[in-house]
Amino acid sequence: MSAFALDDLFGGGNRLPGPARLLRTAAGSVPPSGLVMLGIVSVQLGAGFAKELFATLPPSAVVFLRIAAGALILGAVARPRLRGMTWRDWAVGLGFGATLALMNLSFYEALSRLPLGVAVAIEFLGPLGVAVAASRRRLDLLWVALAGAGVALLAPWGGQASTNWLGIAFALLAGVCWAAYILLAAAAGSRFPGTTGLSFAMVVAALAIAPVGVVTGGADLLQPHLLLIGLGVGLLSSVIPYSLELQALRRMPKHVFGILMSVEPGVAALIGVLLLGEVLHVVQWVAIACIVAASLGSTRTASRT
């Protein structure tokens, strides 16, 4: 995923305000692997708190709160310049934003029907597919088979009440969108300076999801405590992890970063147990382990290639 750092937000150097300078210094004292793990935990905590909101708001309204919060923060600190954009820039930016909106909406719809760890594991097939496509070695067939076995074990035909077909379909759609997100993020990075591409995409995503989110959320969206939680979800799910990820990428090889990110489904499952009380079956843990192993294997293969 795309990322931005505190230096990018505040201009870097001595111009950083006191709290930002302290935060940057603190991040610099943490090993890059620790930053990656903190980012992963932050993302999944954000998803966990978002799922808690489903008792009050439908998933589409929660998605709107999250994306709107991220768009406001990014728009304030990395405002994109529309003047001078070519039609190709507009096409990439609009496609990036639409993909971001659909990815989050489909993931939250999956999250409302599946345990957190299961939803994240299935969604992870998206970046796994990108990694396999980039490698093109025969060994990749093993990772595909392993990931497929994981998804098969997560299917509800085994009598698992905590999974259902519609939730799996939404999670798979989120994975497809994540794969497209990776490709569009790279294209946006080559056309937009700094993090303005991500900022532009977040604004587009907020505008795209607003009609559905406002209609389904209604007057509940105006409740101050829900707005505050939505802001917290936006920070935990976007701003904080993106900052930590870029700080880590500046200090470690990309393939090591990819290997560390592969444990995200396992972290999601643990947070689901601890935060949401989602106790998984043994078969579900085995399935998540298969997908994590496939992601680890494909990342190592791609790094050798």
UniProtKB/TrEMBL annotation:
The keyword Transmembrane applies. The keyword Transmembrane helix applies. It is found in: Membrane. SUPFAM superfamilies: Multidrug resistance efflux transporter EmrE (SSF103481). Its main location: membrane. It is a multi-pass membrane protein. Keywords: Membrane, Transmembrane, Transmembrane helix. Residues 166-297 form the EamA domain. GO terms for cellular component: membrane. Belongs to the EamA transporter family. This is Inner membrane transporter RhtA.
